[in-house]
Amino acid sequence: MAIAFESLYSDIAGRNGKLVAGKKIIRTPALLPVINPHLPLVTPKEMQQMGVEALITNAYIFSQSQQYREQALEKGLHKVLDFDGVIMTDSGSFQLSVYGEVAITNIETLTFQRDIGSDIWVPLDIPTSPQSDYTTTERELAITMERLKEAKRVFGADAPIAGPVQGGIYTDLRERAGKEVTDLNFSFCPIGAVVPLMESYRYKDLVQVVLAAKRTLSRAACVHLFGAGHPSMFALATAMGCDLFDSAAYALYAKEGRYLTTHGSFKLDELAELPCACAVCRSHTADEIRTAPDRVRLLALHNLAVTLAEIARIRQAIVDGTLWELADERCRTHPQLLSGYRELLKNTGSLESHDRVSKRRFFYRGNESCARTEIARFQQMLVRLCLGKDVLVACDGRIRDGYDTVLLFKPPFGPYPPELCETFPIGQSEIPDWDDAMVLQGCKGIRALSASHPKSSISVSGMHQWMAILHGECSDIIEVID
Amino acid sequence: MAIAFESLYSDIAGRNGKLVAGKKIIRTPALLPVINPHLPLVTPKEMQQMGVEALITNAYIFSQSQQYREQALEKGLHKVLDFDGVIMTDSGSFQLSVYGEVAITNIETLTFQRDIGSDIWVPLDIPTSPQSDYTTTERELAITMERLKEAKRVFGADAPIAGPVQGGIYTDLRERAGKEVTDLNFSFCPIGAVVPLMESYRYKDLVQVVLAAKRTLSRAACVHLFGAGHPSMFALATAMGCDLFDSAAYALYAKEGRYLTTHGSFKLDELAELPCACAVCRSHTADEIRTAPDRVRLLALHNLAVTLAEIARIRQAIVDGTLWELADERCRTHPQLLSGYRELLKNTGSLESHDRVSKRRFFYRGNESCARTEIARFQQMLVRLCLGKDVLVACDGRIRDGYDTVLLFKPPFGPYPPELCETFPIGQSEIPDWDDAMVLQGCKGIRALSASHPKSSISVSGMHQWMAILHGECSDIIEVID
Predict the structure, then answer these.
(1) In A, residues 415-444, which contact B (CB 8 Å cutoff)?
(2) Alpha-carbon span B193 to B201, nearest angstrom
(3) A306 shares contact with chain B (CB less than 8 Å)
């Protein structure tokens, strides 16, 4: 297979992996800067020194370009761009989505991509707008699938061709597309037509669309979220299992005088300070950048540094098992990202089954933390506990005699046997002073314990000022001591 | 006056200001790197290029140093350190707190600080440990106050002397200290003996101590949180009205192979990636730093870049009026910081009265946002609305006839007249899909409206699935329509 993907570490549905394209290997997650040969701001070589291993460029622009078409065909993309890493080419589908039409066919664009030496070729899929109705979306999806089959037929099973997943805003169509692309043996699967969602901050819809596609895509497939995006949303996308991002933002924002950060974007003109540790920001004042002759390039370098640092941050979080913390941090930077994050948390059930067993730590960050996969997993595992007939859950740690089994209690997880006090998550979790949300979640753990041990009778002691919550959740199944 | 402070912008109790020491001016908030002349890692000149305007060094170390004592007396501190910005000197109180004793008197250390040309001198106050009982704390506070009076007496009212606030863990003693230091006309007031709290992550206690001191300190005084700290806690401290920080962390951590970030610290040995945009991290891999001969210096440069970027981030947040967002972001990085943040939010009442009227925006970031000053202010302002006899709060925006006054509803703020739809906070606030916490807070706004308009009868429509919350909060004072 020309394109293969391997996951090395994982956290939630996110993974640190290796994408193999031909003889080249890149690490994921990765951000592929978009290169427009007509408008170079930062050279591919400079990007490589900053840690970039792969680029994306638009083959359609090359094919229509008087200046670059022949060069690309003769010397190849890598020589033209002076870059020996992985180069992915987009087909013209982007122009299709923006202008409504494009003067190239599926086979023509793939042929051209092959001939200029692209490492990953993208067919001419149809990016269906989120505004389109079901019938249109279904029809365009069928055309996309035909073009994917055609690509396999004409170029062979081993050609390094991407299998984009379309389906618009309809989760059932996204599931169908994911399944069909998998059945066709595509190992590199971009999720397309999401840029309009991200531009409108429709992150709740984005989560639904991505989760739908991931439900049927193979976990061995590398997933590229096409056109994503702003660095503040990478963590959320990675948590759902997206591996690659591409963005022209670093350059477009620079030209528009916009300054990227992981907590949002600013107009350079509005900045009194430069809230960033990068080389540009630690050696200039905001005024100095504004009046610098190479202002646009300085901004582009800053934007790129911030974006690549975020990729590094995500990879480290996956190694540590702290991706939930990072997603939680980033998703509070905009209320619509918070909506997307809360939508993701509703899907903990399906995310939990593939989450890793042990992590560096569990830090409680607010009541959203109660919906995390580690808690769902813990409360499911309670069924494995062997309990005697009379069980005491000593919530304040004060053990009493007269019980067959005594358990301790740690919100938001719930009851646990003392022997588990040093294993994950009990031993490596840190919580602030108890709050209503975590106590309620812990009480759900008591309920789960009761449900899975019908022969035991459970008493609970030491809840003190949290009695009302305990009663509300558990009064029908437990006995309260003092 | 030798030391003066002026606030230029403010947000919550935080301010961007100017600290004048003699003829020199520095911008605040500011981080003063601690310089140990025996162990230079990054030179003061290099720091100046990175944006540092002031340093702190320990006069006691200088006075005991064979190598530096005479140099400092002859040439002056600024020449010895090759730095023309503001230099503050610590007295030896730090050594006192660590070793229990110090071989210098209050007047000796102040004389020495004067003679070496320090810009801000610190008396020999007694940093009372948080473990000390009330009697000891009170006694040591009295000694500290005597030394402060002695300093004024001996060196004059215009000497650039700091007035440290002690009082241990006892908020009444901290309030007393704040008042006495203010009565003595100190304009530069460090809050001392908090390092043990921060080292133990006792952020809830830290908040209580700082708020207590700030209750009686003049708002015209510049407040230095002595020994603070880790960059993840600067925003919380600034929100409470701290203006200066000092830290040796950038160097100590570097020597111990520890890597600072605003979301916590890492051991360099544990890092697979370098999650940072700074010059060091964008030009090395983690392995390359580990094996670099100048590894400690590289780490120190990274640590300093991260710390100074955070100061810039705080200043920009104050300009924009988004300091709550930044404090919220940073305080979720550790569960004990979250405890501290929640403690601060309990004090919204006192913070609200000095908060600014209008901000760039209000982003809802989670249920903690319901306790923010802007909401308390808004709900207090409701008393100013002129209402007719029959009032309708149309929560879903559907206006009905037959009412003297119709108001709209936006959680977490509550009811508002259509004319205010474009003013702060209604017009510049963004919220995710409604959640229980914000709806409850909005209903408290309805209650506040009712309480302040006893002649009006209030009906509420359009709450739909939020009826239970509305009933729970307001059923005794409103009529529900459909």
Answers:
(1) 430-433, 435
(2) 14
(3) yes
- How long, in residues, is chain B? 482
Chain B residues with CB under 8 Å of A433 CB are 204, 339, 342
Which stretches of chain B score pLDDT less than 70?
1
By C-alpha distance, which of A83, A82, A92 is closest to A112?
A92
- φ/ψ (deg, to 5) at B292: -75, 140
Q: Has residue A1 got a pLDDT over 70?
A: no
Tokens for A386?
């062997």
The predicted-structure confidence for B295-305, as pLDDT tens digits, reads as follows 999 999 999 99
- Predicted pLDDT at A61: 87
Tell me: the pLDDT tens digits for A287-322?
999 999 999 999 999 999 999 999 999 999 999 999
- SS3 readout for chain A: CCEEEEEEEEECCEEEEEEEECCEEEEECEEEEEECCCCCCCCHHHHHHCCCCEEEEEHHHHHHCCCCHHHHHHHCHHHHHCCCCEEEEECCHHHHHHHCCCCCCHHHHHHHHHHCCCCEECCCCCCCCCCCCHHHHHHHHHHHHHHHHHHHHHHCCCCCECCCECCCCCHHHHHHHHHHHHHCCCCEEEECCCHHHHHCCCHHHHHHHHHHHHHHCCCCCEEEECCCCCHHHHHHHHHCCCCEEEECHHHHHHHCCEEEECCEEEEHHHCCCCCCCECCCCCCCHHHHHCCCCHHHHHHHHHHHHHHHHHHHHHHHHHHCCHHHHHHHHCCCCHHHHHHHHHHHCCHHHHHCCCCCCCCCEECCCHHHHHCHHHHHHHHHHHHCCCCCEEEEECCCCCCCCCCEEEEEECCCEEECHHHCCCCCCCCEECCCCCHHHHHHHHHHHHHHHHHCCCCEEEEECCHHHHHHHHHHHCCCEEEEC
d(CA B482, CA B480): 6
Would the ipTM clear 0.85, i.e. be above it? yes
B473-482 long-range contacts, CB within 8 A, separation 24+: B473/B440, B473/B443, B473/B444, B473/B446, B473/B447, B474/B443, B474/B446, B474/B447, B474/B450, B477/B446, B477/B447, B477/B450, B477/B451, B478/B393, B478/B446, B478/B450, B481/B392, B481/B400
Asked if pLDDT for residue A66 goes beyond 90, the answer is no
Q: B22 vs chain A: nearest CA distance in angstroms?
A: 25
Question: pLDDT per residue over B61-101, tens digit each?
Answer: 898 888 899 999 999 999 999 999 999 999 988 888 888 88
Smallest CA-to-CA distance from A370 within A407, A425, A320 is with A425
Q: How high is the pLDDT of residue B1?
A: 63
Of the partner residues A49, A50, A366, the one whose CB lies closest to the CB of residue B332: A366
Q: Which of residues 362-391 of A touch B (CB under 8 A)?
A: 363-368
Tell which of B365, B438, B440 to mutate to test the A interface (max A CBs under 10 Å): B365
HSE-up of residue A395 (Cα within 13 Å, Cβ side): 25
The pLDDT of residue A334 is above 90: yes
How many other CB atoms are found less than 10 A from the CB of residue B189?
Answer: 25
What pLDDT is stored for residue A302 in this prediction? 98
The shortest CB-CB distance from A272 to any of B49, B319, B433 is to B319
Catalytic status, residue A328: no
Q: Which of B479, B465, B464 is nearest to B393 (CA)?
A: B479
The alpha-carbon gap from A287 to the nearest alpha carbon of chain B, in Å, equals 14
Tell me the residue type at B122. Answer: V
Per the residue annotation, which of A11, A90, A205, A243 is the catalytic one? A90
- What pLDDT score was predicted for residue A153? 97
Distance CA A444, CA A310 (A): 36
Confidence of residue A100 (pLDDT cuts 50, 70, 90): confident
